[in-house]
Amino acid sequence: MPLKTGTEYIATIKALNLESHILGKNETGLTDHPLIQPSVSAVAATFDGAHSADEQTRQLFRARSPLCDAEVNRFTHLHQSPRDLMNKVIMQRRCGNLTGCCFQRCVGMDAANAVFSVSFECDRRHKTQYHERFTNYWRRIQTEDLVVDGAMTDPKGDRGKRPKDQKDPDLYLRVVKRKSGGVVVRGAKLHQTGMLNSHELIVMPTINLRPGEEDWSISFAMPTNTPGVKFIYGRQTSDTRKLEAFNMDVGNMKFGGQEVMTVFDDVFVPDDRIFLCGETDFSGLMVERFAAYHRQSYGGCKVGVGDILIGATALIAKMNGVENASHIKEKLVEMIHLNETMFSCGIACSAMGHPTAAGNFEIDMLLANVCKLNVTRFPYEMARLATDIAGGLLGTLPSAADLNDEVAGPYIRKYLAAADGVEVIDRIRVFRLIENLVAGAGSVAYLIESMHGAGPPAAQRIMIGRQGDIEGKIQKVKELIGIKKPN
Length: 487
Description:
By secondary structure, the chain is of the alpha+beta class. Helix content is 47%, strand content 15%. It has a four-stranded mixed β-sheet with strand order 5-8-9-12.
């Protein structure tokens, strides 16, 4: 099957007839729902990128897959080299530039690369057949050009207790019944970005599991419209602006993100869709590899959105007539510096990538964790600087409805005028875009997700501590200054 266009993708998602609880109602026809439609458009952009009139962009969104011996969308690709890993980050930055929001496909791509290698290593130790199952499954994903969402984060309940010690064992997704031909699972996955825009989902464990916790050590895939899978839409800041007649107040009028709670209410999973089932010794490795790939991703997607924030901030400075002020220039330079530092880390961990035993390529985990630790801080500082430069109107603008009012409109156009030649309505559009990213619906992906997506700062610090090779650095010092006695 040829690579889908955005329009073709939307048609296939519509055909799934997914339902979701949204603002207290069970809703259908989700691709046309005003809260969800912008996020559908953002995913569609990842398909249209593979058909761009610009050859460089088109090639960036495509890759040659040895799995199906054909050209595939890079979002379904299993990385074959450090160059592939770098192109992934560059593509993600480009997607952020095109949409100014989360485009929702990174989690599935990162999950696939983790499950591919971990299933191979699990088979070698336990004589299982997970890798062949996953390879067959992913070949179909590539051939049919499907969107897959990754599902890792469990509710966790009392964080001080293990899964088996929870008052409600379903607070970590688990196997509740083993039967001929498959298993039945129950539980939930939270913060599922883009789930309602996906054809399939891949579930992974959320923590390193121990002997005695086999029921929670499960990885599998299924269609998003599988019976028993239920979706509850997550609120975003200012999200109901999308329901208003004048959508300019949304800020990003064309694109947006989406997060849901996904519930598995005694769902049957057939054997050929199971990639880990009870092997607790590989649960932690799956978590670690997925997290590292996803932490690499943030060096691309958040940087692409950061480019948009920097551009909007520079534009509002011009519109306000302060673009030549030295302190404004200094703050814009700092925003660029922070953004490019994140990108550099994403490229560095990719360039230092290495092959796994399964044959796909893995990033340098230490540098991937450094990348994500920077992402937990830098977008917040960039948002602060953007707010500083933009000024107080960022939080006090009249509504688009008032702009169109015959009484209020003329006053708004008169008193919100700024630099010569600047249209008031254009100035308002830029304010709203900045607001969207630093305080509105876009801030869910740009700020909150930067903090907690792929794990909070403590998770990266733990991994950096493990991978930083302190003892090796101590030994280098001893060799340098001639200390021979062990301490």
